[in-house]
Amino acid sequence: ERIGARPVLAVAPTQDAAARLADDLRSLLAGTGLDVHLCPDIPGTGERLAVLDALAGAHPVVVVAPVSACVEPLPSPEAMAAASLTVRAEAVLPRDDLVRNLERAGYERVALVASPGEFAVRGGIVDVYPPDASGPVRLELWGDQVDSIRRLDPISQRSLEPLADLTVRPALLAPPEGPGVPLAAYVPNGGLVVLV
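Given the sequence above, the corresponding structure tokens read:
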């Protein structure tokens, strides 16, 4: 079977060992088109979401993770999908429903959005900073309709270029109820889990 035919989760004993293995694999697999991702052992939502996306992506990938990251409980893939919200320009979305969804997803309400996992509300404007985004986004509502979605400059608080849609995923990767699932639950059928 050729390298990269299916996704692989390589489990290393420590974060240092995982980092070394990821570096070695990047060197060995350079030019093959196969992506190598390192899953951090410190729960960082943005980094973990990138790893989960890589495992669920259309092309095979190698994810290297320390044991500590593999046993950290995560919401199931189904719970993650249910907790995510895709907002499109011109869609109907009552502001109060949006605020409730953000609070349930672990976002912190603040006066001005500056860090991942925060949101702010001023009238019909809702600013949100998803943990896996490069910066905050402003949703401008007109009644119950999304009038516009724009990137937001966190320093000047001014709207920037428009976006067609925005997927808002949980700010915290804690299981909603129950014990949660390990990282291996995100490896698709046919994928490999390898202990190194």
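The chain has a mean pLDDT of 90. Try to locate this feature in the token string yourself.
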